UniProtKB/TrEMBL annotation:
Signal peptide: none annotated. Its EC number is 2.7.1.4. Belongs to the carbohydrate kinase PfkB family. The keyword Flavoprotein does not apply. It comes from Solanum verrucosum. This is fructokinase.
């Protein structure tokens, strides 16, 4: 059941001029990787034991862009894929989902990245990546669509694009353009340890841009990793180790339990709804997309705890609906699906 302090205003979220969602929102530009996920047709088996795989478009920044669009927002994606069948397919999927893909680039020599994902019986994931190098690692600063970045109300990114050159320098340049243009910087570290040279490199790379972000979304496991196994549920740990002076909003996702939030003025927790998880791929990205969709149309959201809690519950529902399907992008909910669920849980 929804939190009573939230439930009274959720049914009319999409219609409220001053609420967390408006009919027309501003542009969110998502930067980073887009790839093909191969998911076993049978859960709870190893890659070697899987009888077959289903291909699904993925990549955290691209997932967020599609989620925002499916929720009725405005989004664009900037990244690089191979000039191959998979790359063209991914560009078409963005277009089909009304995501501006004009910032995509195609590499003639490197292939589109692939990821094979094993699913436990509970829908949790393990990854095996094929990118040596893949096209997303090779985006150059000269290939950036600068005008598109300057239009962003929110510029969103992860950490995978910080691992290798030339993409790392391109990522930093894009952040600088966005910041100078007045964009809100949104960061989801999205830790994928197998892609980093070492744990120390991952920790250092993720934290290298930490203090530049206005909004950060992080998981409990990532808190433990970044703080050296400190208790991720301890507010003092989170505030002292991870909340930097320029941060407007820190979100800590707790899977099916919901989300904690921290601002300079207040902190709290918002529960999620109960669903049967099939595949958790894309859940965090759906949550992020839900929050950013709300924030893009209400830039002062983090200053009003009531409206922020409404937005977080909205995002929790987005994530919950995503885990009931298979694959990242294919399972992302539409605005209508979220509103129907909100109506049910707040009735």
């Amino acid at each position: 059941m929804a939190d009573e302090s939230i439930s009274g205003n959720l049914k009319d979220l999409s219609l409220s001029r001053n609420g967390v969602v408006s009919k027309k929102s501003h542009l969110v530009v998502c930067f980073g990787e887009m790839l093909i996920d191969f998911i076993p047709t049978v859960a709870g088996v190893s890659l070697a034991e899987a009888p077959a795989f289903e291909k699904a478009p993925g990549g955290a920044p691209a997932n967020v862009a599609v989620c925002i669009s499916k929720l009725g927002g405005s989004s664009a994606f900037i990244g690089k894929v191979g000039d191959d069948e998979f790359g063209r397919m991914l560009a078409d999927i963005l277009k089909q989902n009304n995501v501006d893909n004009s910032g995509m680039r195609f590499d003639h020599d490197a292939r589109t990245a692939l990821a094979f994902i094993t699913l436990t019986a509970e829908g949790e994931r393990e990854f095996v990546f094929f990118r040596n190098p893949s096209a997303d690692m090779l985006l150059r600063e000269s290939e950036l669509d600068v005008d598109l970045i300057k239009k962003a109300t929110i510029f969103h990114y992860g950490s995978i694009s910080l691992i290798d050159e030339p993409c790392r320098s391109t990522h930093l340049a894009a952040m600088d353009i966005a910041k100078r243009s007045g964009s809100i910087l949104s960061y989801d570290p999205n830790l994928r340890l197998p892609l980093w040279p070492s744990e120390d490199a991952a920790r250092s790379g993720i934290m290298s841009v930490w203090n530049l972000a206005d909004i950060i979304k992080i998981s409990e496991d990532e808190i433990s990793f970044l703080t050296g196994a400190d208790d991720p549920n301890d507010d003092e740990v989170v505030l002292k180790r991870l909340f930097h002076p320029n941060l407007k909003l820190l979100l800590v996702t707790e899977g099916s339990a919901g989300c904690r939030y921290y601002t300079k003025k207040f902190k709290g927790r918002v529960n999620s709804i109960k669903v049967k998880a099939v595949d958790t791929t894309g859940a965090g990205d759906a949550f992020t997309g839900g929050v950013l969709k709300c924030l893009a149309s209400d830039a002062s959201l983090y200053q009003d705890e009531k409206r922020l809690r409404e937005a977080i519950f909205f995002a929790n529902v987005c994530a919950a609906l995503t885990v009931t399907g298979r694959g990242g992008i294919p399972s992302l909910p539409t605005q209508d699906a979220v509103q129907r669920t909100l109506a049910e849980v707040t009735a």
